[in-house]
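[INFO] parsing input record for Flagellar hook-basal body complex protein FliE
[DEBUG] input buffer:
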Amino acid sequence: MEINTISQVSPIQTSGVAKTQTPAQVTKEFGSFLSDAINQVNQAQVESAMLGDMFAAGKIDSIDQVMVAGVKATNMLQMTLQVRNKVIESYQEIMRMSI
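[DEBUG] output buffer:
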């Protein structure tokens, strides 16, 4: 059995590694993340209301679509409220810390 030698080792590529960000950049990204999440919750609420109206008007026959959209919107809203509560709780905890 013959073993071939390694002729050359390639250097590690760092193009995929994120560079250090400033606090302002991180805050902006976090703010846009929260804004996008709230927009998605709003869109789910609007879609649920629209499907409910369409079902009441007789334009769609499947109650399944209406129920799934309603449960999805409710779950997204509940998750958003829980995240908000945890953020407020964390902020209050930080404010209670002594320096």
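[INFO] The CA atoms of residues 29 and 35 lie 10 Å apart.
[INFO] shutting down worker
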